[in-house]
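fyi for ur records
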Amino acid sequence: MGITVSHLIQIMDEIAPPNLAESWDNPGLQIGDRTWPVNKIVLALDASTHVVSAACKEKANLLITHHPLIFKAPRSIDFNTPLGKIIQTCITHRLSVFSAHTNYDSVSGGVNDILAKKIGLTHLLPLQPAPSATSEKYKLVVFTPAAHHERVREALFRSGCGHIGNYSGCSFAVNGFGTFYPEKGATPFTGQPERLNQVEEVRMEAVLARESIAATIENVKKVHPYETVAYDLYPLFPEAGAHGLGRVGELPEAIPFETFVSEMKTRLGLQTVRTAGASSHLVKKVALCSGSGSSLLTHFFQSGADCYVSGDLRYHDAKLIEEKGKLMADIGHFASEHIVLEALKHKLQTIFSERKIEVDIQCCDLEKDPFHYM
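which gave:
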């Protein structure tokens, strides 16, 4: 089955929904044409000069990276600058570049989950839960005569109400009695004017998205027999999901910090790790953030975790962690993210196999941690 860049973007958006990206981020198509065919894909952390050149030599059509090539719109594209040369090379060789960054960090099963499982954590939760990835939800409650509740319910479903997770057509109804007093000039559907009436009614309720409220109420009014429709609207508190930055998890048992770091180095193939805190302290609950983790330090302290694993942590971060009696392991930006490439390759290959897509895919083996430890 032949596919294009557009098809691959759709697949990547399934894996890492773009609405999970941070506001400052720029994931998505960086360079290229959505209509270009794709026969070969290369995966890498960065669209560096060496990576792009290697992908072109391999005659790849698409380079998927974790870090975006372009974070902010350039004022000019000069082919004599590093960015300009990369853009020129990609255009010349018809190589499209696509990135999945903080959206792949946040999504369940993404970078942070891969890192957490790699170092042996279980019972994972987001360190900073993502805002609801779906529309803001409300519950609409409508009161209707018993003989009309089917028509009203159908109007609710036609308007898009009743979606909960993977289920549609969700509603609840209960019988009861309503009272009303038609003032002078009112024309009630049932009951006597200018006296208190009691009628049998059905209370119906269903969940709907905020943007559907106006249209739904309008559709209900079209089929509802009452002159004035009685309804309530309740905002729903967003459910804490599995998406978000960082992760908090637990080790099978409490172990000395020194042992935890040693085992983590083995699991991740690391030679060195920067640490802070007493090596004799025990570690059971661990918080982590792939890439640069300084921005989630407050969330780490609030999580109750014993140790924070991340990269690009600063001197003052380490001092604060030490003062609070906590532990820190800085494994480096590169090491915390490079492990995702093989996992992404496997995920894409599984999808390709299920959908009978024939595309070659490989991880770039040229990338190394830019820092040298002497």
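The chain has three domains: 3-101+340-363, 108-131+243-331, 137-235. thats all i got for now
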